[in-house]
């Protein structure tokens, strides 16, 4: 399906008006965006061929009003859990990107029974010491986020004003580079989890991936070659293939189904 | 200066061979092959005694010119027979290999050889893409990705999947890991811009071969510039120059041997294949296009008496910056062993001691 076939919807949760984009049919896949806000990418379109994709704009991001109310990541996660309720999704797959990866982890801890599987795209819940979010001009930010800026033509450019508006919220909720409370809880989270890092990530060191794998009892780590922090924009086809396979087969996704017969 | 001897397993054909590559398997003589590998060990024991630091092996297929299609097998065999010398695996042709297997085998051999391994990773010469049906247009990309995966397999402590462009694995977690940590000294081999940039980005060494000092010097200069760009400087030992050397008692004798060298490599490809390969395979030196070497003779850049060669090595050090010379002392493909042994002895006595401090 084309991106234009995504429908825009609005619901209220915890007193916030929340916008979302929805496309596709099948098992629901909820997406929580990164610090840059909701931007539909070719990966959303590819995922919507197999899943009912619901991509939220979290309160305070994008064109939504300034969010001075949410105090912590667990609080944001619980707001998003209510938003998911409002859409009527009982069980769903959950995907979080960067900042939204941490939201997704808290949401999975709060609503463990409802989350079928968890996908974390370059999650920001664990960061190397001194990790700095991308800053500067839109071009400078793009250079930090993407290995293949030439692919950006397909999605709208970053709006510096919107970005500036959400910075205080991001700073307030992101937490320390190592969040002991969260990490302790992750040891009991047995939700099938896929952690993806691009080999060229210049925001969060790909080596952080192994910490999730080490902490979480049912975690799989995949490196996406030649992708930077925004994996799903740099290599949407590669990203979608492994994510879809994982969501459909969970840990059995390690068993290859690739056919190698050249001619019968 | 460190010295490496490039070992090619000298096959002495009992009867004349067809001259086209691939050379028919049926013309191979098993006893001659057995003699070649036996002779290899004897020769290398001598090489070790002379004080060479490394012996290097390479991957070439379908001809007796260099009788080592599997460099890892050569390296394992040599590591078991030789005591101290380092074994330089220069190296597996990455785009036609399974990179995980390459990482495993090197880790295994580095451990078996008690950390005596040196590794070079490369795209391979043009003709090698015919060996396992590699599309030359994809070779560069497969090399870069494969090399990156080898490094990741050596160093990533948790099982991981690789969602590549040319390689895909869901589970990688190699045992053993290399004895030398995080991995053996590793070089990206080649003069291309891509190869130099890869080496600089991953803090690897750089290996260049055969071209004139000026020509390979362009590549090593570019490599050092790229290293500086990534905030580091390579040591001289991180640059290898592989070259042919014709050494004799006098300059005249050496020049005479040079004149006798054939104008093209033994076992050339059929002209139609060669021409097609020339257009399909794109090569460069530090970004400047160069013609692929397809069936042409490789230049000999060190020629002369010991005094002359010592001066050439000095100049090479200045121009190329290499701290490791990887030498062929007699044209590979030649079954003549006696001149090779004479050159080796002369090199060990009259050249090696004088170039150590260069």
What labels would you give this structure?
heterodimer; A: 264 residues; alpha/beta; Rossmann fold; eight-stranded mixed β-sheet; 9 helices; globular; B: alpha/beta; TIM Barrel
CA-atom Rg of chain B in angstroms: 20 Å
Please state roughly what percent of the residues of chain B sit in beta strands, choosing from under 5%, 5-15%, 15-25%, 25-35%, 35-45% or over 45%. 15-25%
The amount of beta strand of chain A, in percent, is 15-25%
Q: Helical content of chain B, roughly? A: 40-55%
Q: Mind telling me the C-alpha Rg of chain A? A: 17 Å
The first-level CATH class name of chain A: Alpha Beta
What's the CATH class label of chain B? Alpha Beta
Count of extended strands of chain B: 15
The string of secondary-structure elements of chain A, in order, is: EEEHEHEHEHHHEHEHH
Q: What count of structural domains of chain B?
A: 1
**CATH fourth-tier homologous superfamily of chain A:** Alpha/Beta hydrolase fold, catalytic domain
Q: How does CATH name the architecture of chain A?
A: 3-Layer(aba) Sandwich
**SSE-based structural type of chain B:** alpha/beta
Q: How many structural domains does the protein architecture of chain A include? A: 1
Strand order of the largest sheet of chain A: 1-2-4-3-5-6-7-8
Question: Would you identify the CATH architecture of chain B?
Answer: Alpha-Beta Barrel
Please give the largest β-sheet of chain B: 8 strands, parallel, barrel
List the strand order in the largest sheet of chain B: 1-3-4-5-8-9-10-15
Mean pLDDT of chain B: 95
């Amino acid at each position: 399906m084309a991106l234009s076939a995504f429908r825009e919807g609005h619901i209220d949760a915890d007193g916030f008006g929340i916008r979302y984009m929805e496309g596709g049919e099948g098992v629901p896949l909820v997406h929580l965006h990164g610090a840059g806000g909701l931007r539909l990418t070719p990966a959303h379109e590819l995922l919507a061929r197999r899943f009912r994709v619901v991509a939220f704009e979290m309160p305070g991001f994008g064109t939504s009003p300034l969010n001075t109310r949410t105090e912590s990541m667990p609080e944001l996660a619980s707001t998003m859990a209510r938003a998911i309720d409002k859409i009527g999704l009982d069980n769903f797959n959950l995907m979080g990107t960067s900042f939204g990866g941490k939201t997704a982890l808290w949401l999975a801890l709060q609503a463990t029974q409802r989350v079928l599987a968890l996908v974390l795209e370059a999650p920001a819940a664990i960061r190397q010491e001194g990790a700095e979010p991308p800053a500067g001009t839109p071009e400078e930010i793009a250079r930090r986020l993407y290995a293949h800026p030439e692919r950006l033509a397909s999605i709208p450019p970053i709006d510096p004003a919107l970005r500036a508006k959400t910075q205080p919220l991001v700073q307030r909720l992101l937490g320390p580079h190592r969040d002991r409370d969260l990490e302790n809880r992750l040891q009991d989270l047995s939700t099938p989890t896929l952690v993806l890092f691009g080999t060229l990530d210049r925001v969060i060191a790909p080596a952080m991936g192994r910490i999730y794998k080490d902490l979480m009892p049912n975690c799989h780590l995949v490196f996406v070659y030649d992708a930077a922090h925004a994996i799903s924009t740099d290599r949407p086809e590669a990203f979608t293939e492994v994510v879809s396979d994982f969501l459909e087969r969970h840990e059995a996704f390690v068993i290859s189904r690739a056919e190698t017969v050249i001619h019968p | 200066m460190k010295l490496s001897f490039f070992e090619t397993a000298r096959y002495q054909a009992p009867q004349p061979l067809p001259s086209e590559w691939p050379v028919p398997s049926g013309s191979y003589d098993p006893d001659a092959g057995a003699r070649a590998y036996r002779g290899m060990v004897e020769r290398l024991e001598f090489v070790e005694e002379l004080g060479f630091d490394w012996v290097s092996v390479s991957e070439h297929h379908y001809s007796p010119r260099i009788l080592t299609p599997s460099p890892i097998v050569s390296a394992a065999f040599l590591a078991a027979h030789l005591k101290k010398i380092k074994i330089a695996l220069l190296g597996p042709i990455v785009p036609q290999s399974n990179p995980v297997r390459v990482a495993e085998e090197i880790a295994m051999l580095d451990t078996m050889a008690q950390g005596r391994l040196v590794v070079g990773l490369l795209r391979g010469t043009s003709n090698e893409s015919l060996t396992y049906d590699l599309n030359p247009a994809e070779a560069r990309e497969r090399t870069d990705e494969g090399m990156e995966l080898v490094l990741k397999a050596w160093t990533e402590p948790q099982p991981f999947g690789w969602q590549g462009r040319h390689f895909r694995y869901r589970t990688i977690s190699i045992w053993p890991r290399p004895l030398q940590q995080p991995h053996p000294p590793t070089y990206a081999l080649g003069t291309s811009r891509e190869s130099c940039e890869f080496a600089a980005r991953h803090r690897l060494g750089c290996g260049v071969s055969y071209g004139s000092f000026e020509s390979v010097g362009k590549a090593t200069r570019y490599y050092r510039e790229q290293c500086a760009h990534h905030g580091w400087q390579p040591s001289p030992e991180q640059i290898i120059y592989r070259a042919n050397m014709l050494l004799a008692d006098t300059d005249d004798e050496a020049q005479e041997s040079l004149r006798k060298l054939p104008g093209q490599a033994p076992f050339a490809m059929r002209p139609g294949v060669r021409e097609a390969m020339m257009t399909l395979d794109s090569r460069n030196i530090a970004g400047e296009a160069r013609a692929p070497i397809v069936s042409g003779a490789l230049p000999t850049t060190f020629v002369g008496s010991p005094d002359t060669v010592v001066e050439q090595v000095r100049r090479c050090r200045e121009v190329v910056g290499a701290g490791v010379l990887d030498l062929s002392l007699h044209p590979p493909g030649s079954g003549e062993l006696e001149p090779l042994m004479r050159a080796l002895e002369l090199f060990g006595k009259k050249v090696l001691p004088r170039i150590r401090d260069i």
